[in-house]
């Protein structure tokens, strides 16, 4: 990130601190409109409740552009409207207002206020990331003959908006860059180095490409080893390391019904997979020896064990289901999964047992079966639940990529070499659809392997198809 070239007056620093105090600048995990997860969020709307702060901000913006030539100014609706009003009133510069939608009655004006063709208008905005809001307002002004050469903004998130606007002939004047905000807050002891690094890393990897349309922000694609280093959860890190070492994003769903079949299948296919997924309760002859031997195979062939138990009860019940009973899942599974239906208590109950044993949990955010109800708001709420429990939740069962956060893993069931459906509603996608097009990380394959004439050959085929699909996504990102 480029450091700001100018020395800022002390008052600028105090304004950043006040913005932080009133929660206009927040740090944590936030899902943006684009679906991308951001470690920093600006909500400058709260300024209207702090008139002195808003006046000070308006003055800072004015100081930044006094050299520019314009005869009117226009705030980008809505946050910047009161700021533009203050600038207009204090400096006696006429204001224009852009309607978000043209009125359906009366004069049908897109721009309110008095203007003439060829007038130059300054755009006022609170935050610029891609530059799209400033451009929308500039387009609206242009459509009535008003020109825009400059825009002033309180904060430039340094995500490519400045370059995009310059390409369109608009010079962006910013009071603060994201780097300034981080420097000031860190200097004042409000942020630790870890948060500063995290935000800097996010900005670095989430820039809009100026020559692309503004909606095409693509999250960075990491190779497995690089991504493992970003992960603090030991299960996620280990999994990504295995995926890199074995060049495999294949999980075997070993849905056979006897211990012997299970152990024989896993011994043969183990070298080609990063995960073996079990449904331990479908075994007719389960004994503790089965899972002891399975764990030995996991160590020998370097894979993790995922018990697909789909916990879905209140915290106290899942705690017992996971931590005890006949299967004693927490004593051998590295990964488990849960539905978010019961609310966060299900995660808390599982965490109480699993966290100290180094186990990670996937939340079922989407399913592969036809007509399933895990869609829309339910999926979004599940992602929020995962973000609020990142120490224990390592990712999702899903059929799409749901977050750009590289520390979450997406695993997708319902995979065959050709797309289709079984007689009970299972829907199949191909490895390239799942990994290259939809941005998932791991393909989960059951019958495609264990019902094949030669399961080892089938596993090799899926391993190759899955890994090639990942390389295609990586290459696409690198060359875009
Ligand atoms: P298949 O034989 O490749 O269709 O097996 C898929 C496995 O994934 C099977 O164990 C299912 O229980 C599991 N699964 C799934 O198919 N779809 C889902 O949405 C979830 C799990 Br969650």
Automatic annotation (TrEMBL):
**Could you tell me which SMART domains the record lists for this protein?**
OMPdecase
- Which transformation does this protein catalyse, written as a reaction? orotidine 5'-phosphate + diphosphate = orotate + 5-phospho-alpha-D-ribose 1-diphosphate; orotidine 5'-phosphate + H(+) = UMP + CO2
The opening ranks of the lineage are: Eukaryota, Metazoa, Spiralia, Lophotrochozoa, Mollusca
The enzyme's E.C. designation:
2.4.2.10, 4.1.1.23
PROSITE patterns the record matches: OMPDECASE (PS00156)
A single GO molecular-function term is: orotate phosphoribosyltransferase activity
Keyword Amino-acid biosynthesis assigned to the entry: answer is no
> CDD domains given for it?
OMP_decarboxylase_like, PRTases_typeI
Q: Where does substrate bind?
A: 255, 277, 368, 426, 446-447
Q: Which Pfam families match?
A: OMPdecase, Pribosyltran
Supply the alphabetized keyword list. Answer: Decarboxylase, Glycosyltransferase, Lyase, Multifunctional enzyme, Pyrimidine biosynthesis, Transferase
The Swiss-Prot or TrEMBL record describes its family as follows: In the N-terminal section; belongs to the purine/pyrimidine phosphoribosyltransferase family. In the C-terminal section; belongs to the OMP decarboxylase family.
Which named protein is this?
Answer: Uridine 5'-monophosphate synthase
Organism domain of life: Eukaryota
């Amino acid at each position: 990130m480029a450091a700001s070239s100018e020395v800022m007056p002390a008052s600028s620093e105090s304004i950043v601190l006040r913005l932080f105090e009133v929660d206009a600048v927040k740090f944590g995990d936030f899902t943006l409109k684009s679906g991308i997860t951001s470690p920093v969020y600006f909500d400058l709307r709260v300024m209207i409740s702090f008139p002195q702060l808003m006046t000070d901000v308006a003055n800072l913006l004015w100081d930044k552009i006094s050299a520019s030539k314009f005869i009117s100014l226009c705030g980008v609706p809505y946050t910047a409207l009161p700021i533009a009003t203050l600038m207009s009133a204090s400096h006696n510069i006429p204001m224009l207002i852009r309607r978000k939608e043209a009125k359906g009655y009366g004069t049908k004006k897109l721009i309110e206020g008095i203007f003439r063709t060829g007038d130059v208008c300054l755009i006022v905005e609170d935050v610029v990331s891609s530059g799209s809001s400033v451009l929308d307002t500039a387009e609206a002004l242009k459509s009535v003959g008003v020109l825009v050469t400059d825009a002033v903004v309180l904060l430039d998130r340094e995500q490519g908006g400045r370059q995009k606007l310059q390409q369109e002939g608009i010079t962006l004047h910013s009071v603060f860059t994201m780097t300034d905000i981080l420097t000031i807050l860190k200097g004042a002891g409000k942020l630790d180095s870890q948060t500063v690094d995290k935000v800097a890393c996010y900005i670095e990897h989430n820039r809009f490409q100026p020559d692309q349309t503004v909606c095409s922000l693509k999250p960075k694609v990491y190779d497995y080893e690089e991504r493992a280093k970003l992960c603090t959860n030991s299960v996620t890190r280990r999994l990504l390391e295995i995926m890199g070492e074995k060049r495999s994003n294949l999980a075997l769903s070993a849905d056979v019904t006897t211990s012997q079949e299970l152990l024989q299948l896993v011994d043969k296919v183990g070298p080609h997979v990063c995960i073996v997924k079990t449904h331990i309760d479908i075994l007719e002859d389960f004994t503790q020896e089965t899972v002891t031997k399975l764990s030995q195979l996991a160590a020998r062939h370097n894979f993790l064990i995922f018990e697909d138990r789909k916990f879905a009860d209140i915290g106290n019940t899942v705690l017992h289901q996971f931590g005890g009973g006949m299967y004693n899942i927490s004593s051998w599974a590295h990964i488990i999964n849960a539905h978010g239906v019961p609310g966060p208590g299900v995660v808390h109950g599982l965490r109480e047992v699993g966290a100290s044993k180094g186990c990670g949990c996937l939340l079922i955010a989407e399913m592969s079966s036809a007509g399933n109800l895990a869609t829309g708001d339910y999926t979004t709420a599940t992602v929020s639940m995962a973000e609020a429990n990142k120490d224990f939740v390592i990712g999702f069962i899903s059929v799409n990529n749901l977050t750009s956060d590289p520390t979450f893993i997406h695993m997708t069931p319902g995979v065959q070499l050709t797309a289709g459906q079984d007689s009970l509603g299972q829907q199949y996608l191909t490895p390239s659809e799942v990994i290259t097009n939809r941005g998932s990380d791991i393909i989960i394959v059951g019958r495609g392997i264990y019902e094949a004439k030669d399961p080892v050959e089938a596993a090799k085929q899926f391993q190759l198809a899955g890994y090639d699909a990942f390389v295609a996504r990586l290459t696409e990102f690198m060359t875009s």
